């Protein structure tokens, strides 16, 4: 067992404790960025001027009338930008655009003494537009050859050969929808200028270091002149990984130009119309099975809806391709990916980061092919599981494949699946107007950023003279309980009670160059960095304690606020030890660092071992569908999920439950609609409010909801044997969609096949029920074909650019330069 | 009016002046401006509940009920003279309120942003009189959407609160773990005394005036003086217009506390429901007298909205997708309009004239709605929406049928979401009346019903689905109301 994963006796990690801010949350005392507004004297408010066009040139921008509105202080335009007019890192997201690329894009921002003044000012700004044609749907983009970024291909074996030799070849298409993050706290930044031009931005951001970078480049400053702090977020889910930067930059620009604090908070409609969402995808596929239903080959082309700019579309697509196998061994694979450029919000990170879309494709394939193969879907899934020793299509060995089986078997048992399957059959035989079904699906999800360089973290641990401890680390708190886990890690590493440790808000002037709190990696990376910092302090304290107690340093045990040797009287209170160490002039703080070892990834070849490990889980979902309306209820869900040895079980169960329900929302009722008509509002988001975009409420919670964490699941080489938890459970919700498919099928005779649109809204389920009863092909679906030409996934041009995210190119260029320099050949 | 008096609200036990307030200032922004930033803006349209606060209201008798309301929809001025409690006022991190304690220790908060709103909605239900008597198994079903836990906690109290993090299970468990308030709980004690008086109010802001008249006569006088004035009761619709669409008015008349509009009377020929009673109050006062409405209430928006929304408001806005009008059409309700020239009665079927338009003149207001008695014996309300709690219907169908000896003697069907106004399904009614209540009749009438109205394609549903829902509604009703012996299995 590695030092990193080894737990001491009686660790604070592993205790089921509530969220560290729970007391502040429930009393309303917890502060979020916008809560600073009332606490900041003389603050100005920013309001956007949103374009009423989907694609248009800005031919005239006349801001003077806004300044006549009482209370308006300034209008920010492109002319005001001293640095780079771009809100992203790829140079394709002008902050103040001259060409509108999606309906409602902000062309300039008005600052007012009150939000009302800024709003009225924004209405007074005169803008002339020259409308241009717009591409709205992925299918339109494909027809018009409108793509952006790289077109990666993941390939293993000989797909064409394998399909030619398969007993069954099916082909089909799937259009799967995106998802709005709908973090309850919308995007918000509060900026002010300190003395000497230092810019301080409080931002609701998952990626303070990148917010800092963007603010700096917009203002034309160096990073050391900009500090970003994130108190906490009211939800992130990936929506605050890239999206906050531009808003922080606008607020900072306003603050530098006016000398006054500026608050920019999007209201819900603005947030919905301006910010990126989960990518919708279009998939074409052909799949070959042998006579026993074993997958022989998958040929698929995935086209993601990138929206107007690249944002994180390339890494999202890469992760989609890397998860199209889910938990299944597919010997021959060819998956092509490409990113559509459409005139919509720029789609971005969202919990799962392409993984859900990739997995949905293979689960859709299996769910639709099972009845055609005459095999129970659960049997078909289990039959195709990875075995230990097999490799993913990108060449990473599938370690701990048996854990997928363990989760699956445990769900079957604790979920009482056999008995319930019989009960469901009885119910369906005796109820003409409702059908029930139970589906079980697995998850295998790779943990680490695909791009290896991001897998690093830092922490700063201060021990004060009185023995109290203050921890800073590079991760942000968005509700996932990262800070709670970090407190537990620090308390365990130092051997002090939890109450001795406090966590300070995340700030770029405490821990620099941090990665986004994303990819489920927050606890793995930052936990290891916190532990490293604590251990440095402990090593120094060992020397002090050794001299004091007369015990060799490595025989001392730190725990519960004491340091002990093995003998009688060899005990020293932590606070006394710390006080003595100070007197002896021992450094009582440390900066910790961690980088994940053993990762390698070639994104051009789409090959390597990008993941530290895989997370596993299984879910069984039972639904009841009403045949009159297509409405349904989620009767019961049983989940077993692998989080390693949990750092914090109450937190982890919360992540599993919350992720599952969020995933169920994506696949059932959350229904993003853009105006696809040819009318004047073509391209407008039709569901741009809480009243039109519906997330799960309490009524969508599974009526019986059992979540268990896989036991004896120690993960070697990860902080205290734990595993990441943020994203993987979301994909367990595919079980709900498959259960709905099976329940709809059950309205027809045995072996009935239905095509279920995604999301599976009551309407979509209703059309599937109609189809089961002999009705027409449901809207937004394409029937699966067996044999023949069928659907042929489009193959990219021979000269298509492979996936080369700019960030990787920079890193590689630097490596090359370094190598060249060190070998004396460089210039 | 209280001339010379400052407008003020008692917030968490302290009197706070309503300073710097305009008619369009909502209670949430005002509270947050005081530094009470626990209540949050999540949507500004009463959909998420992050802004929920507790307001002391009448319990229908002589006492007070702590009522949870969306502060984002409520004009701050409407709180003049009232008592408000926010999450900050319930407890502190060092001394948590029982609701706060249960949520905190069970993992009921993750990001915490929605939490203060959940706390207030839960506290309202915690203090609900008679909760203990409603103990249930806690499992809902299609027949019994109310899911009262073992402590009588009705989860519908939380139907207007959204959480994006937890998946709700720990929130439900916290709700069902709550005991009864202790004897010395100040908010429990407060229930036993009278609620704050409805004070007449006049707020003169820079941008306009908010006036709450003392009685109907004064209201009609103001309306005559200011024909363009906006009438606001619960503000659950107006608040959305103000917050999201920038609606501003130089003159707003708050009619929510007019005593003449807050009566509920039952006579032999009808039940008359005051226009500005909230739906929660109507539900309580009717006490099951109108079974069709009891089916509507739990499906009408959320508890937070029903605590503010009024029957008059639902008719006053004239929305084609309001959930009450289809039911009231099926019940053949009559609208009582009052103006300077007196009162007149209009059958609801004649009330709507177009999209968000009605026969109500600018100088009139809805005083009450009368539901004639006796009621039909078979009634049902079918709402089609994506979500069970708090969603807007794509189609709503209300049935009121008299089936006597297997014959449909009388059929009244109200439809929502299939035309520019709520409409009666007259052709379908004709296809049913005088025929046997049989599968054949239902089949024929369903075909007629499928072509009622002119449903649209939009983000809620396709026109084809709306038509299909019209087509299956009668069949579903029939399946649920088959006379004994006809053989179809009952759900």
From TrEMBL, chain A:
Among Gene3D superfamilies, the record links this protein to:
Aldehyde oxidase/xanthine dehydrogenase, a/b hammerhead, Aldehyde oxidase/xanthine dehydrogenase, molybdopterin binding domain
Residues annotated as domain Aldehyde oxidase/xanthine dehydrogenase a/b hammerhead: 27-133
**SUPFAM superfamilies annotated for this entry?**
CO dehydrogenase molybdoprotein N-domain-like, Molybdenum cofactor-binding domain
Q: Report residue spans for region: Disordered.
A: 793-827
Instruction: List, as start-end ranges, the regions of compositional bias called Low complexity.
Output: 807-827
* InterPro entries reported in the protein's UniProt record: Ald_Oxase/Xan_DH_a/b, Ald_Oxase/Xan_DH_a/b_sf, Ald_Oxase/xanthine_DH-like, AldOxase/xan_DH_MoCoBD1, AldOxase/xan_DH_MoCoBD2, AldOxase/xan_DH_Mopterin-bd_sf, Xanthine_DH_Mopterin-bd_su
Q: Report which residue ranges the record marks as coiled coil.
A: none
Query: What name appears for this protein in its UniProt entry?
Result: Dehydrogenase
Automatic annotation (TrEMBL), chain B:
- The 2Fe-2S ferredoxin-type domain is annotated at 5-90
Instruction: Write the record's keywords in alphabetical order, separated by commas.
Output: FAD, Flavoprotein, Iron, Metal-binding, Oxidoreductase
Q: Where does the record place the FAD-binding PCMH-type domain?
A: 203-376
CDD domains referenced in this protein's UniProt entry, alphabetically:
fer2
The residues forming the signal peptide are none
Q: Name one Pfam family in it.
A: CO_deh_flav_C
Q: Which InterPro entries does this one have? A: 2Fe-2S-bd (IPR002888), 2Fe-2S-bd_dom_sf (IPR036884), 2Fe-2S_ferredoxin-like_sf (IPR036010), 2Fe-2S_ferredoxin-type (IPR001041), 2Fe2S_fd_BS (IPR006058), Beta-grasp_dom_sf (IPR012675), CO_DH_flav_C (IPR005107), CO_DH_flav_C_dom_sf (IPR036683)
SUPFAM superfamilies in the record, alphabetically? 2Fe-2S ferredoxin-like, CO dehydrogenase flavoprotein C-terminal domain-like, CO dehydrogenase ISP C-domain like, FAD-binding/transporter-associated domain-like
Q: What is this protein called?
A: Dehydrogenase
The taxonomy runs: Bacteria, Bacillati, Actinomycetota, Actinomycetes, Micrococcales
């Amino acid at each position: 067992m590695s030092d990193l994963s080894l737990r001491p006796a009686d660790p604070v990690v592993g205790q089921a404790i509530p969220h560290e801010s729970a007391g502040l949350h429930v009393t309303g005392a917890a502060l979020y960025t916008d809560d600073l507004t009332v606490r900041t004297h003389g603050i100005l408010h920013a309001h956007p001027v949103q374009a009423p066009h989907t694609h248009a040139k800005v031919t005239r921008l006349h801001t003077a009338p806004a300044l006549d509105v009482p209370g308006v202080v300034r209008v920010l335009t492109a002319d005001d930008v001293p640095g780079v007019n771009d809100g992203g890192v790829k140079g394709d997201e002008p902050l103040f655009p001259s060409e509108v690329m999606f309906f409602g894009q902000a062309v300039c921002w008005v600052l007012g003494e009150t939000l009302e003044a800024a709003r009225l000012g924004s209405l007074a700004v005169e803008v002339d537009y020259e409308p241009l044609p717009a591409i709205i749907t992925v299918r339109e983009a494909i027809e018009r050859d409108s793509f952006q970024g790289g077109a990666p291909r993941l390939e293993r074996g000989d797909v064409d050969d394998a399909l030619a030799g398969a007993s069954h070849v099916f082909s089909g298409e799937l259009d799967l929808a995106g998802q709005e993050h709908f973090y309850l706290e919308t995007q918000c930044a509060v900026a002010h200028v300190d003395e000497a031009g230092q810019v301080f931005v409080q931002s609701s951001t998952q990626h303070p270091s990148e917010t800092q970078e963007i603010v700096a480049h917009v203002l034309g400053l160096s990073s050391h002149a900009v500090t970003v702090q994130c108190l906490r977020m009211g939800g992130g889910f990936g929506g605050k990984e890239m999206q906050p930067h531009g808003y922080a930059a606008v607020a900072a620009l306003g603050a530098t130009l006016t000398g006054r604090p500026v608050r920019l908070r999007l209201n819900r409609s603005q947030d919905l119309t301006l910010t990126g969402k989960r990518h919708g995808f279009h998939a074409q596929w052909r799949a070959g099975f042998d006579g026993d239903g074993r997958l022989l080959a998958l040929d698929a082309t995935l086209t993601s809806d990138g929206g107007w700019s690249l944002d994180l579309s390339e890494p999202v697509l890469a992760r989609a391709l890397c998860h199209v196998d889910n938990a299944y061994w597919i010997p021959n694979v060819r998956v092509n990916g490409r990113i559509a450029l459409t005139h919509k919000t720029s789609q971005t990170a969202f919990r799962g980061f392409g993984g859900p879309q990739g997995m949905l494709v293979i689960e859709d394939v299996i769910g639709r092919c099972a009845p055609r193969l005459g095999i129970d879907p659960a049997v078909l899934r289990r039959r195709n599981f990875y075995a230990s020793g097999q490799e993913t299509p990108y060449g990473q060995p599938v370690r701990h494949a048996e854990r997928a089986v363990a989760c699956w078997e445990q769900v079957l048992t604790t979920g009482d699946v056999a008995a319930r399957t019989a009960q469901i059959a009885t119910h369906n035989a005796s109820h003409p107007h409702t059908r029930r079904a139970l589906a079980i699906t697995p998850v295998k999800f790779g943990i680490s950023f695909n791009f290896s360089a991001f897998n690093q973290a830092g922490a700063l641990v201060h021990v004060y003279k009185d023995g109290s401890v203050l921890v800073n680390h590079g991760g942000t708190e968005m509700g996932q309980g990262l800070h709670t886990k970090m407190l537990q890690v620090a308390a365990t590493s130092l051997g002090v009670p939890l109450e001795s440790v406090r966590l300070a808000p995340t700030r770029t002037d405490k821990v620099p160059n941090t990665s986004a709190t994303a990819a489920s990696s927050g606890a793995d990376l930052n936990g290891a960095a916190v532990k490293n910092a604590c251990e440095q302090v402990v090593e120094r304290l060992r020397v002090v304690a050794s001299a004091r107690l007369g015990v060799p340093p490595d025989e001392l045990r730190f725990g519960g606020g004491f340091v002990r040797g093995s003998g009688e009287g060899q005990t020293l209170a932590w606070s006394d030890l710390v006080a003595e160490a100070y007197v002896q002039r021992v450094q009582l703080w440390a900066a910790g660092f961690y980088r994940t070892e053993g990762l390698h990834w070639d994104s051009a070849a789409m090959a390597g071992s990008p993941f530290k490990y895989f997370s596993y889980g299984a879910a069984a979902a039972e639904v009841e569908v009403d045949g009159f309306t297509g409405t349904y209820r989620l009767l019961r869900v049983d989940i077993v999920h692998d989080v390693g040895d949990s750092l914090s079980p109450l937190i982890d169960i919360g992540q599993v439950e919350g992720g599952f329900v969020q995933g169920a929302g994506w696949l059932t009722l959350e229904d993003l609609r853009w105006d696809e008509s040819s009318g004047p509002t073509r391209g407008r988001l039709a569901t741009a409010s809480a009243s039109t975009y519906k997330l799960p409420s309490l009524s969508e919670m599974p009526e019986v909801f059992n979540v268990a964490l896989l036991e004896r699941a120690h993960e070697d080489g990860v902080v205290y044997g734990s595993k990441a938890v943020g994203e993987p459970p979301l994909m367990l919700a595919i079980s709900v969609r498959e259960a709905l498919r099976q329940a709809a099928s059950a309205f027809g005779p045995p072996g009935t096949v239905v095509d279920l649109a995604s999301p599976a809204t009551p309407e979509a389920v209703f059309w599937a029920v109609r189809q089961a009863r002999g009705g027409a092909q449901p809207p937004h679906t394409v029937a699966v074909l067996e044999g023949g030409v069928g659907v042929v996934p489009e193959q990219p041009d021979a000269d298509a650019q492979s996936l080369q995210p700019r960030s990787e190119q920079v890193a590689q260029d630097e490596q090359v330069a370094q190598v060249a320099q060190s070998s004396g050949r460089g210039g | 009016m209280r001339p010379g008096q400052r407008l003020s609200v008692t917030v968490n036990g302290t009197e706070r002046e309503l300073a710097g307030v305009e008619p369009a200032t909502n209670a949430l922004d005002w509270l947050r401006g005081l530094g009470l930033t626990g209540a949050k803006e999540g949507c500004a349209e009463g959909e998420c509940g992050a802004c929920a606060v507790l307001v002391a209201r009448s319990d229908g008798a002589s006492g007070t009920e702590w009522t949870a309301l969306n502060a984002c929809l409520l004009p701050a001025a409407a709180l003049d003279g009232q008592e408000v409690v926010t999450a900050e006022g319930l407890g502190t991190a060092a001394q948590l309120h029982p609701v706060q304690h249960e949520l905190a220790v069970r993992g009921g908060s993750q990001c915490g942003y929605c939490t203060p709103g959940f706390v207030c909605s839960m506290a309202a239900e915690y203090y609900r009189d008679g909760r203990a008597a409603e103990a249930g198994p806690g499992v809902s079903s299609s027949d019994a959407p109310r899911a009262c836990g073992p402590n009588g906690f009705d989860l519908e109290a939380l139907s207007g609160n959204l959480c994006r993090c937890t998946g709700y299970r720990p929130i439900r468990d916290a709700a069902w773990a709550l005991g009864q308030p202790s004897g010395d709980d100040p908010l429990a004690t407060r229930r036993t005394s009278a609620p704050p008086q409805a004070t007449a109010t006049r707020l003169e802001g820079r941008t306009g005036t908010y006036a709450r008249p003392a009685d109907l006569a004064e209201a009609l006088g103001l309306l005559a003086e200011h024909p363009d004035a906006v009438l606001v009761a619960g503000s659950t619709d107006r608040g959305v217009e103000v917050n999201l669409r920038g609606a501003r008015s130089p003159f707003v008349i708050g009619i929510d506390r007019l005593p003449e509009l807050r009566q509920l009377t039952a006579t032999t020929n009808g039940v008359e429901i005051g226009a500005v009673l909230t739906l929660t109050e109507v539900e309580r006062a009717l006490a099951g007298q109108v079974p069709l409405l009891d089916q509507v209430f739990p499906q009408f928006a959320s508890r937070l909205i029903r605590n503010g929304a009024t029957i008059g408001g639902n008719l006053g806005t004239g929305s084609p997708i309001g959930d009450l009008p289809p039911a009231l059409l099926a019940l053949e309700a009559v609208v009582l309009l009052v103006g300077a020239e007196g009162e007149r009665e209009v059958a609801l079927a004649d009330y709507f004239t177009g999209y968000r338009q009605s026969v109500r003149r600018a100088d009139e207001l809805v005083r009450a709605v009368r539901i004639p008695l006796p009621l039909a014996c078979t009634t049902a309300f079918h709402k089609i929406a994506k979500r069970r709690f708090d969603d807007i219907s794509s189609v709503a169908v209300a049935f009121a049928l008299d089936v006597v000896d297997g014959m449909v003697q009388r059929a009244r069907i109200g439809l929502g979401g299939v035309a520019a106004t709520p409409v009666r399904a007259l052709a379908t009614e004709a296809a049913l009346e005088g025929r046997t209540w049989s599968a054949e009749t239902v089949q024929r009438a369903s075909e007629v019903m499928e072509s009622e109205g002119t449903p649209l394609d939009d983000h809620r549903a396709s026109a084809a689905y709306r038509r299909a829902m019209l087509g299956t509604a009668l069949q579903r009703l029939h399946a649920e109301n088959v006379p004994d012996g006809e053989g179809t299995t009952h759900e």
